[in-house]
């Protein structure tokens, strides 16, 4: 995700033929029904703008939410907000902002009666938006005397830190299984271990503890960035990870199986291209990965969320509106607009709404996505 890592200077690139190449259609896959259906009548009554906005996570610059964002929330045209360091002066200030946003969400003009998704990256170590736990990085937890206890303690601490500030989603834990010391994930201490079993165990401990504390976990970056070299940063440019399908299944995806078994509520999908799964599109734009691997093979029925839509990895895929449409077509539920601009979120939502009207995106699939998101939101009080 944007702003998580220092700038890299080089990365593998997607070839022009890969960008232009065919991609499997979403019609080839079936997305499972949501485990908890939102009221069907309410979903069917949403306007195109609401059905689109309910899939968008907004961001904004500075300490004060813009009026345009508050208006969108009151109209039922936003799913939530992500916060970065520039939005936060103290936990108390952020808590006041959170209350203001939730009051806007409670407007009688908003047909979706559920709390907003208010989120941040509180991974631990150097990747924290708020002061407070988890203090240790994932790598430090993996090297501790009692890693499972430390992982559970980190999840409990993350939940307490975020709830104090009025937040209810943490974009953590990272479940990447790093390959080489100092590579893209390891250089920031963002991986528990080189061993899939250890990552699976510790990630599941973190998920259970954090969600017991009332904060939803978002495991990332499916199917895994552990093989990325030091300079392969999807925030900056396209990345291809030439990992065998068997390795992806047996090593990189193993922690997600454990997280799903632990009840993880959200999974973030990577922007890297995995030729063994789909040689043409980044994972978050690929029905093969989102619907084939994550939904069908692993059986995940929760909420999928993109990485930042403005990422350099998507430079060959056009505007924010087009990127959002491709992500939705692939089966992604939530679109993360992390560019510190409410305009980015508005463009993503407008692109979805136009696609509904033009028949480029299925309203039934959109309603299923919003039902999953609404079920998640109603569970977070």
Question: What attributes does this structure have?
Answer:
8-stranded parallel β-barrel, globular, 10 strands, two-stranded antiparallel ribbon, 14 helices, disordered N terminus, alpha/beta, 381 residues, TIM Barrel
| Spatial extent as radius of gyration | 19 Å
Span between N and C termini? 26 Å
- The proportion of residues in beta strands is 5-15%
- What is the helix fraction of residues, given as a range? 25-40%
Question: From the coordinates shown, what is the CATH architecture?
Answer: Alpha-Beta Barrel
Helix/strand structural class: alpha/beta
- How many extended strands? 10
Going across the major beta sheet, what is the strand order? 1-2-3-4-5-6-9-10
Which shape, going by the Cα principal axes? globular
CATH class: Alpha Beta
Order of helices and strands: HHHEHEHEHHEHEHHEEEHEHEHH
Low-confidence stretches: 2-41
Query: How many helices in DSSP terms?
Result: 14
The CATH homologous superfamily is termed: Glycoside hydrolase, family 3, N-terminal domain
CATH fold label:
TIM Barrel
Main sheet, how many strands, which sense, barrel? 8 strands, parallel, barrel
**Count of the domains:** 1
């Amino acid at each position: 995700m944007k702003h998580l890592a220092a700038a890299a200077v080089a990365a593998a690139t997607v070839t022009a033929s890969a960008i232009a190449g065919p991609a499997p259609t979403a019609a080839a896959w079936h997305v499972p029904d949501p485990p908890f259906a939102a009221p069907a009548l309410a979903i069917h009554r949403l306007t195109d703008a609401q059905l689109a906005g309910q899939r968008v996570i907004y961001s904004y610059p500075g300490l004060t939410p813009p009026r345009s964002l508050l208006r969108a929330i009151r109209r039922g045209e936003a799913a939530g907000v992500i916060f970065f360091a520039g939005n936060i002066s103290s936990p108390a200030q952020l808590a006041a902002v959170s209350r203001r946003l939730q009051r806007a969400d409670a407007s009688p003009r908003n047909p979706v009666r559920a709390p907003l998704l208010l989120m941040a990256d509180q991974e631990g170590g150097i990747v924290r938006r708020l002061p407070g736990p988890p203090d240790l990085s994932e790598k430090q937890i993996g090297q501790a005397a009692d890693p499972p206890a430390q992982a559970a303690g980190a999840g409990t601490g993350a939940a307490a830190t975020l709830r104090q500030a009025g937040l209810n989603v943490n974009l953590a834990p990272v479940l990447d299984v790093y390959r080489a010391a100092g590579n893209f994930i390891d250089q920031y201490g963002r991986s528990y271990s080189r061993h899939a079993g250890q990552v699976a165990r510790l990630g599941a401990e973190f998920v259970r503890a954090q969600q017991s504390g009332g904060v939803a976990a978002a495991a990332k970056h499916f199917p895994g960035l552990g093989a990325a070299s030091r300079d392969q940063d999807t925030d900056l440019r396209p990345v291809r990870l030439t990992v065998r399908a068997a390795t992806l299944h047996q090593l990189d995806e193993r922690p997600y199986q454990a997280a799903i078994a632990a009840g993880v509520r959200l999974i973030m999908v990577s922007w890297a291209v995995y030729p063994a799964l789909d040689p043409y599109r980044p994972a978050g734009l690929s029905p093969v990965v989102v619907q084939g691997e994550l939904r069908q093979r692993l059986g995940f029925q929760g909420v999928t969320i993109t990485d930042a839509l403005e990422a350099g990895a998507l430079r060959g895929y056009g505007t924010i509106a087009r990127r959002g449409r491709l992500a939705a077509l692939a089966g992604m539920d939530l679109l993360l607009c992390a560019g510190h601009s409410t305009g980015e979120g508005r463009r993503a939502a407008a692109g979805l709404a136009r696609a509904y009207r033009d028949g480029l995106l299925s309203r039934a699939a959109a309603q299923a996505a919003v039902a999953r998101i609404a079920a998640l939101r109603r569970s977070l009080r």
